[in-house]
Design goal:
This protein has 202 residues and is of the alpha+beta class. It contains 7 helices and 6 strands, in the order αααααββββαββα. α1 packs across α2, α3 crosses α4 and α6 crosses α7.
Length: 202
């Protein structure tokens, strides 16, 4: 559980509570996509209802970049990215990347589109895996009698099936999602969790 690890090693909480894990999750998502301490503080307040002083956010930012040095190095590289086109592992392209030219009182300057440069390779690669998983669920839909795909929400696929088949359907979906995503991750293990419930909320 990455968020639990962050709570333990970045927030120094030996046995993370639900609240500590939630804060760690907010930190992971914010800093992974390029937030600085000030923006992290704003996002914690507006998106999570967590109010912290700027000094605390600066401490967490430093602890996080120290813990996840590989990710921090990736973010530093993306600040200097200049290629105007990014291509996903499966060939989908996003234009308008790299740096853009803006006019200033000192003349034209090239400015990094840091957030776009940082976010797109992560979310674009995830989207490739999700698209593959959706296609596989549809292609193999007759393997689970009575199963229907209801919706896709971010990194979740919601299926409906007769209760008798629910345990099998859950494992079946896990295997499909891992099979779709693992080839894009190399040596990084892909884990998928499933829940069975009467509603989407479980």
């Amino acid at each position: 559980d990455l968020h639990r690890i962050t709570a333990q090693e970045v927030l120094n909480v030996a046995d993370p509570t639900k609240e500590a894990r939630t804060l760690a999750k907010a930190i992971n998502f914010g800093l992974l996509f390029g937030c600085g301490a000030k923006t992290l503080r704003e996002q914690l307040a507006s998106n999570w209802g967590i109010i912290l002083p700027l000094e605390k956010c600066e401490e967490m930012h430093h602890a996080w970049t120290t813990k996840y040095q590989g990710v921090a190095a990736y973010l530093d590289r993306q600040k200097e990215a200049s290629n105007p086109v990014w291509t996903s592992p499966w060939g989908r392209r996003r234009l308008g990347m790299g740096k853009i030219q803006v006019m200033t009182q000192w003349g034209p300057r090239f400015v990094s589109q840091f957030n776009k440069n940082a976010n797109t390779p992560i979310q674009g690669t995830c989207a490739d895996g999700m698209k593959k998983a959706i296609a596989e669920v549809y292609r193999r839909r007759n393997e689970v009698p009575g199963m229907k795909m209801l919706m896709v929400v971010h990194d979740e696929i919601v299926l409906a099936c007769p209760p008798f088949y629910a345990p099998y359907c859950a494992k079946w979906l896990e295997q499909i999602m891992i099979g779709a995503m693992q080839p894009l991750l190399g040596e990084v293990p892909c884990e998928v969790e499933s829940k069975i419930g009467d509603t989407w909320g479980g």
